[in-house]
UniProtKB/TrEMBL annotation:
It comes from Kryptolebias marmoratus. PANTHER family: SIDEROFLEXIN, SIDEROFLEXIN-3. It is found in: Mitochondrion membrane. Belongs to the sideroflexin family. It is a multi-pass membrane protein. This is Sidoreflexin. Mitochondrial serine transporter that mediates transport of serine into mitochondria, an important step of the one-carbon metabolism pathway. Mitochondrial serine is converted to glycine and formate, which then exits to the cytosol where it is used to generate the charged folates that serve as one-carbon donors. Keywords: Amino-acid transport, Membrane, Mitochondrion, Transmembrane, Transmembrane helix, Transport. GO terms for cellular component: mitochondrial inner membrane. GO terms for molecular function: monoatomic ion transmembrane transporter activity.
């Protein structure tokens, strides 16, 4: 007979050591696996039941440790860590590679005309707005008006930035023009993410002690979380938007590409996808998902409440979002 699975496995934390870059990379390769997007609702719900039952001390008969971890990562790929709600499919991190390879490939291909720049920057920032909202930190609700204002501000700022950079690039060599989409995306991320998560900056995000006990909400923690996410997102874009333009600039001079210009877009999309398969999890791994901050760096009133409620706590933890 098979032995029943131990209840001592801590599936609240990732399977690999998050104190090391390699451990975080292994974790995010699982979380961002594009194959998770194809999983059915039944598979997601089954994983949710396995995970929630295990946390409650109920083990499915015959369940192995590998199956438990697989269910945990399927669950993590589709359900928000703070609210527990099922995330919108294109906002999940597992959708990053297929969605971004299509959008970024088109941005890099159709960059020569102003209407094309406006359209693809709008598509990209609309997608980013969905991702930023879906992967926000905290469990406080956001109103439709707040969401609408944030979306309009973010996408308008991003499109204006792209057009400004395109105008500047007209006086520069053609190869430089190919990098306008990257510069626009990098600048837009600095606008889009804070706007879509502005509620966190105003009201704070939940902070806990090392045992997961909630201690309050901190805007300082939200600032650190958003800065880390902006850096990670820009890092994700670097290989996908910097390497393909150089390769395509060389390929387009070849007789084969001149004879079949229709191949430009699919080749560009393929190159972007290859870069993103590795860049997405590796850049997510730059910072721990469960970020930390010294109590002394929190707001004065929150510091005082923590000193009274938990005098031995010197460090707080929070979900930085993605």
């Amino acid at each position: 007979m098979s032995r029943e699975l131990s209840l001592n496995i801590n599936i609240k934390e990732p399977r690999w050591d998050q104190g090391t870059f390699m451990g975080r990379a292994k974790h995010f390769f699982m979380v961002t696996d594009p194959r998770n997007v194809l999983l059915s609702s039944e598979t997601l719900e089954e994983a949710k039941v396995i995970v929630e039952n295990y946390r409650a001390g109920v083990v499915k008969p015959g369940l192995t440790e590998d199956e438990l971890w697989r269910a945990k990562y399927v669950y993590d790929s589709a359900f928000h860590p703070d609210t527990g709600e099922k995330m919108f499919v294109i906002g999940r991190m597992s959708a990053q590679v297929p969605m971004n390879m299509s959008i970024t490939g088109c941005m890099l291909t159709f960059y020569r005309t102003t209407p094309a720049v406006v359209f693809w920057q709008w598509v990209n920032q609309s997608f980013n707005a969905v991702v930023n909202y879906t992967n926000r930190s905290g469990d406080a609700p956001i109103t439709v008006n707040q969401l609408g204002a944030a979306y309009v501000s973010a996408t308008t700022g991003a499109v204006v930035t792209a057009l400004g950079l395109k105008s500047l690039a007209k006086r520069l060599p053609p190869i430089v023009s190919r990098f306008v989409p990257f510069a626009a995306v990098a600048a837009a991320n600095c606008i889009n993410i804070p706007f879509m998560r502005q509620r966190e900056l105003k009201y704070g995000i939940p902070v806990t002690d090392e045992n997961g006990n909630r201690l309050g909400e901190s805007a300082s923690a939200a600032q650190q979380a958003i800065v880390q996410v902006v850096v990670s997102r820009i890092g994700m874009a670097v290989p996908a938007m910097a390497i393909p333009p150089v390769i395509m600039n060389a390929l387009e001079k070849r007789a084969f590409m001149k004879r079949f210009p229709i191949l430009n877009a699919p080749v560009q999309v393929g190159l972007v996808g290859l870069c993103l398969v590795f860049a997405t999890p590796l850049c997510c791994a730059l910072f721990p998902q469960k970020s930390s901050m010294s109590v002394s760096h929190l707001e004065a009133d929150l510091q005082e409440r923590i000193r009274q409620a938990s005098p031995h706590t010197t460090t707080v933890y929070f979900n930085k979002g993605l």
